[in-house]
């Protein structure tokens, strides 16, 4: 995994923590892929294709 993907994973994990604790900053706070992508500043398709595991 390259550094860019690792950085995305870090942002995704941090975004998941914010969503699960009700502290969303960049989305409406719903527990959806769309909100997670917005919260992590990652394209939705990146979540579905690169970060499925």
Structural description of this entry:
This protein starts with a helix and ends with a helix. The model has no long low-confidence stretch (mean pLDDT 91). The protein has one domain (3-49). It is an all-alpha fold and 53 residues long. The chain has three helices and no strands.
Unreliable segments of 5+ consecutive residues: none
Mean pLDDT: 91
Number of strands: 0
**Radius of gyration, rounded?**
10 Å
What is the beta-strand fraction? under 5%
**Helical/strand content category:** mainly alpha
Total of domains: 1
Distance between the termini: 13 Å
SSE topology string = HHH
The description of the largest β-sheet is: none
In DSSP terms (H or I, runs of 4 or more residues), the helix count works out at 3
Shape: globular
Secondary structure: helix percent? 55-70%
Question: What is this entry, summarized?
Answer:
The protein has 53 residues and is mainly alpha-helical. It is built from 3 helices and no strands.
Q: What are the salient characteristics of this protein?
A:
53 residues, single chain, 3 helices, mainly alpha, globular
């Amino acid at each position: 995994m390259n550094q860019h993907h690792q950085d995305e994973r870090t942002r995704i994990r941090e975004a998941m923590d914010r969503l699960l604790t009700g502290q969303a900053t960049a989305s409406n706070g719903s527990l959806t892929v769309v909100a997670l992508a917005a919260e992590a500043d990652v394209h939705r398709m990146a979540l579905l294709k690169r970060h499925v595991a």
